[in-house]
Amino acid sequence: MTLPSLSEAEPMTDLVAVVTTTGSRADALRLAHLAVEKRLAACAQVSPIESVYVWQGAVQHEPEYRLVLKTTAARRAALEATLAQAHPYEVPAILTVPLAHANRAYADWVRAETTPA
Length: 117
Description:
By secondary structure, the protein is of the alpha+beta class. It is built from 3 helices and 6 strands.
């Protein structure tokens, strides 16, 4: 993958990636479809991962699915609230990562797809 030149990239974009994990592919896809259909995210990627964490005093090692959703800072709070409400976990990790640079055409597409209809 080639990074865009500085003339093609937007520095300090208003785009963010919202990341969460689920215990099943079906749950990750359900959350992805919900977010994209509501125009809270322009797109979502689902990837299988392995997680190691402490839960209820014991170290756990479980397969999970990482869900990465691209959206704008303006839609972040609504996306996070929707994920929290629909998430199957008692304590879901819902993390937001600012995207410092993005290809201009891609950034424009994300903005267009997350604008309420």
